[in-house]
User: Fold this.
Amino acid sequence: MKRLKKHPYLILPIGLFIILMAIYSCEMDHGLEALPSIKGHAYIKGIRPEVAGELIVVVAPDFPPKKWTDIIRTPPLDMSGDFDKVKTDTVEWELPLPRGTYDVAAILWKKHGEDWSFESVSNLLGVHTEPNLFKPKSVTIPPGVDCVDGINIKADFRFIRYGAFVKGKIIVKGEFRDDTIMMILAAFPMKPETVIDYLFAMGWDLTVPTSKNSYPLGFTLDVSEGYIKYIAVFWKGEHSAPYDFKKIGEYMLQDDPPPWPGAPRHEGIWVSEGDTLVDKFRDNQGNVTSASDFFEIVADFDRTY
Assistant:
């Protein structure tokens, strides 16, 4: 039998190949392991407005998320129910996720024809919370658990803010902080004093830019039709407590006079659907001396300390 001649110069490449294949065979996935998941119910209240398109459940490992790719989302929820304001519709959902802890789980909505984007973060309909508490509750998938059930989220179509607008500009006072991780702009029917008051916001933007170069910043804020009294800017720093926001800018509107003598007085100024809020400045007799539909809000970073 003819013996094969050895070629010493092939020993090193062949040896390396065998070693690499051994390493690869140890690390390669010999079977695709299914991701664990979380699931629950979305309890959706109210009449679905015509403007509302898809609804999704989202989770984020960190709050606040810094970009849309930080967010993991479900496919669009099944919206084939009646969505009658008298009752609450229930929609089941499930979301495969890597194991770990997620700071927030929430329901978002978007308008028909729009794409999902980071700006969609402002379109909150509901958040997973502890019972009777108004801050997000984290979700954890521990080792050895394939599914975490009971992640139920209450949502309300009345939280959809649209139809009217507030226009203005945010200017910065003081030194813009490099550890800024979230800025919020919001409009209210009153100056909020309690946690409950913040739930009555007429409109909000949770994605106000966090870089110094973005300011001064012009804005157009979607709000609901109604009375608006107070507009504010809130700030959160990298080392703040998870839901510790500081108010660093505010604008208080004058009140509309009663529509007729003896009529009840409302705080703030009425803005109608399709219109832009206009602040009216009056003299002591209540006569309008000037008006503006452009609100300049000073964000004072000295108030962050």
